[in-house]
Amino acid sequence: MKMSKSRAITLTVIAVLLAAYILFPFVLVVLNSFKTQSAIVSDPISTAGASLQTFLSNVNAVVNNKNFVFWHAFGSSAVVTVISLFLLAVFGGMAAWVICRNKTKWSTAIYMVFISSMIIPFQVVMLPLIATFREVGKFVGLGMNGTLPGLIFAYCGFGGAMTVFILTGFIKGIPYELEEAAAIDGCSPEGTFFRIIFPLLKPTIVTVTILNGMWIWNDYLLPSILLGQSNPNKTLPVAVQAFVGSFVKSWDMILTAALLAMIPMIVIFLVAQKHIMDGMVQGAIK
Amino acid sequence: MASISFRNVTKIYDGAEKPVVPNLNLEIADKEFIILVGPSGCGKSTTLRMIAGLESISTGELYIGDRLVNQIPPKDRYIAMVFQNYALYPHMSVYKNIAFGLTLRNVPKDEIDRRVHEAAKILDLEHLLERKPKALSGGQRQRVALGRAMVRNPSVFLLDEPLSNLDAKLRTSMRSEIARLHRRLDTTFVYVTHDQTEAMTMGDRIVVMKDGIIQQYDTPKVLYATPCNLFVAGFIGSPQMNFLDVTIAADGGKLFAILGEDKIEIPAFKYDALKPYVGKEVIMGIRPEDFLPFAELTSSNGMSAKVDFCELLGAESNLYVFVGDKKVIVRMPSYMDKPEEGNIKVPIEMERAHFFDKETEQAIVH
User: Fold this and answer.
1) Which helix (DSSP H) or strand (DSSP E) does residue B350 occupy?
2) With bands split at pLDDT 50, 70 and 90, how would you rate the model's confidence at B230?
3) What ipTM score was computed for the predicted complex, to two decimals?
4) Alpha-carbon distances of B341 from B42, B205, B319, B344, B347, rounded to whole Å
5) pLDDT confidence of A282, banded at 50, 70, 90?
6) Over the stretch B142-158, which tens digit does the pLDDT of each residue have?
7) Is the pLDDT at A285 greater than 50, yes or no?
8) Predicted confidence band at B228 (pLDDT cuts at 50, 70, 90)?
9) Min distance A180 CA to chain B CA atoms (Å)
10) Cβ neighbour number for residue A142 with a 10 Å cutoff
11) pLDDT over 80 at B220, yes or no
């Protein structure tokens, strides 16, 4: 179907304006990380004072800052993100598979619980969560508050709903005969999941992983309340706060650190872009 | 190699009022090619899936060979199954699809390789081994599904409407391929279909099912020649048997079928069975090919009919006529001139007419 010229132009203009609107904060971060603190404060929008030299010295100052401990925070973020995503993919896939294939009242009820948890804002549960984690920690004999395993556990809970929701939709489209064929071929239920279902979920898992990954990597609120500022294992978004003092805000450091924190996600997103689209349109056309 | 024995097997789904398969008793001999045939919802697929272990058995016993398999999971039943939609693993190559069952059973790698290549050679898949299922045609996918079942050397080979997704031409060639495979593998085959042509051409014996109950279980020839009831008579044969309501009448020591104004003489060998029905209405069944050439019309074998239209099939033609308000198909050789429009008399070969009780629908005589 061919679009009329005026319609195409209008849509292009809208798209450009929308892109500019969305990218503006990002451009601001990139631009100002090339500038000194005084240049940023005097005019944050102009390119005056921006230089590669300044950027490199900013990067150097951020990476080697004693309060910020960039690599440690980077490592914490990476550990939390990778383990959370792995657990979400495996257990989310398992949960979605069982919910999909067991047509009982219980499985429908559990699915509804997953769905309803998606509409509850995080802010509503964050304070009760701390108290609950403290009690759960006492009960299981593990520190849940202030530890990375506790944070990972929380991410699995918060990310589980969307993961199960998306994967359930996809699993419904997988013919049940494949599982029956696997059972006859000699697969156990676990074997069927890992050898047949999980590989078929790959495009959707990639999509879910990217969506969860962006959120977990960038998340500030949950690690800030669960780990806290003084925690040596704090993640990157929380660590950036080291540059925010009561009286002074080192914008050059904050923005450079934010840019460094963003880079891995941007790279991963660009590389995995194709898979995300594949995963989103999976099942649309057979 | 194994026989299969259903002993009072019932299958009832949770929450259902009546069983899908009520009290099934069926003996399938070792190395036999059995066809389960019937209309949709007759329980044939459920029966096959019970053999596979994909459906539980509510009551009764199922034996494969000497083993009671009611509680044995599918993987330990030494069976292989070909599904209607092939059920090939989309993320695996043809080779891996065929080898999958062997890999799970820890068969040595070179043995897997040998068996996969042997199956691929038989099924003409050797050049496709590296392809993924989505890059194959319907017929090729079907052959991969057969190959996957073959390599396991199963004692029972189960096929659930394997040809229904193929086009007519391919279906014909695959039919003979499967029959050849049965001879080659020399193992028990259980084949489910709703297509009576497949049933007639492939099986050693056919099980005709309706509402979960076996109507008749015999060789294709016997089923065709002597259907035990109206359902089997109508189901087996294409075009299907013509059914006409006739009254049996006795006159001068002879029996006649009264059809409207026509008085058609019944051969003497059918008298004994039909005598109790004198004066009563019965159903007379005549297969389309059991009409005589028009030249052989006599005063006692003609059926009055009104020509509707004629369908040329090639070697033969189907002449559609109305007898009263019932449509009747008469098969005649194409070289014969089709009759003019209007009323005609069609001679019936009464030796081959079937009679059915109108109330019980059971066969009276063939």
Assistant:
1) none
2) very high
3) 0.84
4) 41, 42, 11, 8, 17
5) low
6) 899 999 998 988 999 99
7) no
8) very high
9) 7
10) 12
11) yes
Lookup: tokens for B226: 């002597």
User: Which pLDDT belongs to residue B28?
Assistant: 94
CA separation, residue B205 to residues B7, B32, B69, B99 (Å): 19, 8, 23, 32
What residues form DSSP beta bridges with B207?
B36, B217
pLDDT at A279: 60
Q: Take residue A192 and report the two structure tokens written for it.
A: 């069927």
With CA atoms as reference, the chain A residue closest to B51 would be A184
Q: How many CB atoms are closer than 10 A to CB B255?
A: 19
Of all residues in chain A, the one with the smallest CA distance to B76 is A186
Minimum Cα–Cα distance from A178: chain B residue: B87
* B48 lies within 8 A of chain A by CB: no
Q: What are phi and psi of A248, to 5 degrees?
A: -120, 135
With an 8 Å Cβ cutoff, is B90 touching chain A?
yes
The helix (run of H) or strand (run of E) holding residue B329 is strand B326-333
Residues in chain B closer than 8 A to A199 (CB atoms): 91
Tokens of B196: 């009576």
Estimate the share of chain B in helix, then strand, then coil, as percent rounded to the nearest 5.
30, 35, 35
Does B74 contact A177 at a Cβ distance shorter than 8 Å?
Answer: no
B109 and chain A in contact, CB less than 8 A: no
Which residue matches tokens 């299969």? Answer: B4
User: Nearest by CB to B83, which of A181, A199, A200?
Assistant: A181
**Which one of B81, B112, B116, B158 would you mutate to disrupt binding with A, by most A Cβ within 10 Å of its Cβ?**
B81
For residue A190, which residues of chain B lie inside 8 Å, CB to CB? none
Q: pLDDT tens, A94-111?
A: 999 999 998 888 999 999
> Inter-chain contact B89–A196, Cβ cutoff 8 Å?
yes
Quote the tokens at residue A146: 């202030």
Q: Nearest 5 degrees, angle CA B58-CA B60-CA B65?
A: 120
CA distance A196 to A200: 6
**B226 or A249, higher pLDDT:** B226
Residues of A with CB under 8 A from a CB of B: 175, 177-178, 180-187, 191, 196, 199-200, 202
Min Cα–Cα distance to chain B from A189, Å: 12
SS3 A97: helix
**Mean pLDDT taken over chain B:** 91
Between chains, do B104 and A181 touch, taking CB under 8 Å as contact? Answer: no
